[in-house]
Amino acid sequence: GAVVSQHPSWVICKSGTSVKIECRSLDFQATTMFWYRQFPKQSLMLMATSNEGSKATYEQGVEKDKFLINHASLTLSTLTVTSAHPEDSSFYICSARGSSFTEQFFGPGTRLTVL
Amino acid sequence: EDQVTQSPEALRLQEGESSSLNCSYTVSGLRGLFWYRQDPGKGPEFLFTLYSAGEEKEKERLKATLTKKESFLHITAPKPEDSATYLCAVQAGGGSYIPTFGRGTSLIVHP
């Protein structure tokens, strides 16, 4: 149980385009979802936290207008990187937590490369 | 502010050589301490949740323990497939329930 999927697993796009990443909890209802960014050989950097039906709470230094997060249902959250630039290239990972447990479960990650 | 410090940053072991990873933490009222395993290019995989001092949990060659100030992840007779980065995180009671992660310990087990 507690499976989280992400789609796509990797994406390459041109500078200036927007990219949407989906995160789904497959076998539980995710009341809270988290979005992380991870640079090579570094730890997880929390970007934002979202609760179903509410606006996301962004961490300091994360641009809300650039990284749009939507948590429209108890099983789906999306991260849209708008007007992507090469410096947005990174590994993006989502995680989800249900109301009945304290731990969060991570998706497999999405590798974004902006040319 | 919640803090998590993991040591060592990197650890190299020979197959069968048991060792321990450390996670020291400061938190206002611990709600849970979590251990994850992360393989390169993948999302972290959940291993354990510990809730109170004295608690222990085991899974195959891994055993996690918890005191009021730190947690240990003991690896008994490791195999090369145990090579990964191990992440520790704490979650405080009350407030936003956002976990704080350590920087991880990179473990390499040589055959």
- Largest β-sheet summary of chain B: 6 strands, mixed
Helicity of chain A, as a percent range = under 10%
Structural class of chain A: mainly beta
What's the rounded overall pLDDT mean of chain B? 95
Number of E strands of chain B: 11
From the spread of the alpha carbons, the general shape of chain A counts as: globular
Radius of gyration of chain A: 13 Å
How far apart are the termini of chain A? Answer: 37 Å
The share of residues in extended strands of chain A comes to over 45%
Separation of termini of chain B? 41 Å
Query: Which series of helices and strands of chain B comes N to C?
Result: EEEEEEEEEEE
Roughly what percent helix of chain B?
under 10%
Which pair of protein chains has the largest interface, and what are the residue counts?
A-B, 23 and 22 residues
Low-confidence stretches of chain B: none
- Count the E strands of chain A: 11
The percent range for strand residues of chain B is over 45%
Tell me the layout of helices and strands.
The complex is a heterodimer of chains A (115) and B (111).
Chain A: E1 4-7, E2 10-13, E3 19-25, E4 30-38, E5 45-51, E6 57-58, E7 67-73, E8 76-81, E9 90-98, E10 105-106, E11 110-114
Parallel strand pairs in A: 2-11
Antiparallel strand pairs in A: 1-3, 3-8, 4-5, 4-9, 5-6, 7-8, 9-10, 9-11
Chain B: E1 3-7, E2 10-14, E3 19-26, E4 30-38, E5 45-50, E6 56-59, E7 62-66, E8 70-75, E9 84-92, E10 100-101, E11 105-110
Parallel strand pairs in B: 2-11
Antiparallel strand pairs in B: 1-3, 3-8, 4-5, 4-9, 6-7, 7-8, 9-10, 9-11
Key features of this structure:
heterodimer, A: 115 residues, mainly beta, seven-stranded mixed beta sheet, 0% helix, 54% strand, globular, B: 111 residues, six-stranded mixed beta sheet, five-stranded antiparallel beta sheet
Give the gist of this structure:
The complex is a heterodimer of chains A (115) and B (111). With 115 residues, chain A is mainly beta. Chain A has no helices and eleven strands.
